[in-house]
Amino acid sequence: RKEVEQDPGPFNVPEGATVAFNCTYSNSASQSFFWYRQDCRKEPKLLMSVYSSGNEDGRFTAQLNRASQYISLLIRDSKLSDSATYLCAVIPHFGNEKLTFGTGTRLTIIP
Amino acid sequence: DAGVTQSPTHLIKTRGQQVTLRCSPKSGHDTVSWYQQALGQGPQFIFQYYEEEERQRGNFPDRFSGHQFPNYSSELNVNALLLGDSALYLCASSPPRELGEQYFGPGTRLTVT
User: Fold this and answer.
1) Is residue B104 within 8 Å of residue B89, measured between CB atoms?
2) Which of A2, A7, A35, A43 to mutate to test the interface with B (most CBs of B within 10 A)?
3) Pairwise CA distance, residues A111 & A15, whole Å
4) Is A98 on the interface with B (CB under 8 A)?
5) pLDDT, tens only, A65-80
6) Does B56 sit within 8 Å of A98, measured CB to CB?
7) What are B60-96's pLDDT values in tens digits?
């Protein structure tokens, strides 16, 4: 089983819709969780850290479910500019602070 | 405030050659990590440098080596290049005690022919 798994998509969503992605992780001791956004042929950019209590940044909401070992990203009122690949990343455990990425979920917002 | 910078942006090499990629971290960051991203995949961790030493290493062969300098900049060296080494090589820096908050440079796209 991969350490971090994502549905690769593509997700084709009409503008203004709400879209949600999940990302599962295999190591129950994982410490920290992140969502990155990557535009085509560009570098990943940190979108949000994911906290145990969940967190929100404008139209974006991230949740952590430790019992089921997944994190989620919800995008409300999607914009054309949200079209990108969304990567989840996990730090496996304290003392092993490398980021382990999923393969990414490709999102296209349709006008 | 400059972000993470990498050079060169693109590189074409032949099988068997050696390559050196360079990275300057964001101001105030002391840790540099290197990743390899193949097409359609997420970045794969190569290694991480802190205080001029390799702190962690991913599942990459010894052909991949690195260095960190006193000014925190870093190099990634790959020897005996293989066709499969063709990828986007990303450098990421992180501030002290915040290893999860990694800021990526634009990457070096390496093509091995």
Assistant:
1) no
2) A43
3) 5
4) yes
5) 999 999 999 999 999 9
6) yes
7) 999 999 999 999 999 999 999 999 999 999 999 988 8
Interstrand relation of B87-94 and A105-110 (parallel, antiparallel or unpaired): unpaired
Collapsing DSSP states into helix, strand and coil, what is residue B95?
coil
What is the per-residue pLDDT for B96? 82
Task: Please give the structure tokens belonging to residue B37.
Answer: 């991203």
Q: What is the pLDDT of residue B81?
A: 98
Q: How far apart are CA B42 and CA A71, in angstroms?
A: 17
Distance CA B7, CA B25 (A): 12
Question: Does B104 contact A103 at a Cβ distance shorter than 8 Å?
Answer: no
Does the structure show a pLDDT above 70 at B108? yes
Structure tokens at B51: 């205080």
Structure tokens that stand for B76 in this block: 């990634």
Q: Are the beta carbons of B41 and A103 separated by less than 8 Å?
A: yes
C-beta separation of A87 from A44 below 8 A: yes
Q: What is the mean pLDDT of residues B15-30?
A: 96
- B43 contacts in A (CB within 8 Å)? 44, 87, 99, 101
Nearest-Cα residue of chain A relative to residue B101: A46
Token pair for A38:
């990557």
The share of chain A scoring above pLDDT 90, in percent, equals 76
